[in-house]
Amino acid sequence: MEEAQQKFSNSKEVIAYLADKFPNCFSLKGDAKPLKIGIFQELATRLEEDERVSKTLLRSTLRHYTNSWRYLHSIKEGAYRVDLDGNQDAQIEKEHADHARQQLDESKEKAALKRKAQNDSASHKQNTRQREKASTTSSPARRNVEGKKGTKSKSSRPTKTPPPKLTENDLHAGTQVTVKLGKAPMHAVITEVAKDGIHVQLDSGMVVKVTSEALRLASSKRS
């Protein structure tokens, strides 16, 4: 059993098929021939057994074909329309020729406006990219100025010198220190240096035992 042929999916395929099946009526290039009025019914009858072409697609294909510049250019007063076999039919009247000319002019105007809009959009995008590139690529002089500004900004910040660590000479009773028991260091005085740790008395009177790593020499006194 022979497999069913695949259906056409778009107008381009159908036009190519019609030009091949009815070469005296349809064409893909060169001068187009004006079609007989009522050509759709004639096509529907001739292609009734061909399941590849639906009537809906056939109708949209004819609309696409007859709206093309090539076809509209062929609609001239006095020219003969043709049937599917290329036989002459009725002549084109002035009213139909004027209407086709108007359609052609409007179609060309729309195409020109569309091209202009596309060109303007492309130009705008290019200008935007150039501005972005220019903003990210500064000159050497500007980079130097910015670098100096950055350096000045950093150097203007006050630098805090951390309290010095205790030396062996500082580890004796009476040395004023700071001890970090919480978030902020607290002032204290060493009261005893023992093997198991260093005892310090806080300003509050509390005595705690800490390691030497937790102590810093108080800024007001250094032995």
Automatic annotation (TrEMBL):
Keywords: Chaperone, Cytoplasm, RNA-binding. InterPro entries: ProQ, ProQ/FinO, ProQ/FinO_sf, ProQ_C. The keyword Lipid metabolism does not apply. It is found in: Cytoplasm. Its main location: cytoplasm. The keyword Chaperone applies. Gene3D superfamilies: ProQ/FinO domain. Residues 107-173 are annotated as: Disordered. Residues 6-120 form the ProQ/FinO domain. Pfam families: ProQ (PF04352), ProQ_C (PF17516). PANTHER family: RNA CHAPERONE PROQ. RNA chaperone with significant RNA binding, RNA strand exchange and RNA duplexing activities. Belongs to the ProQ family. This is RNA chaperone ProQ. It comes from Alteromonas ponticola. The gene is proQ.
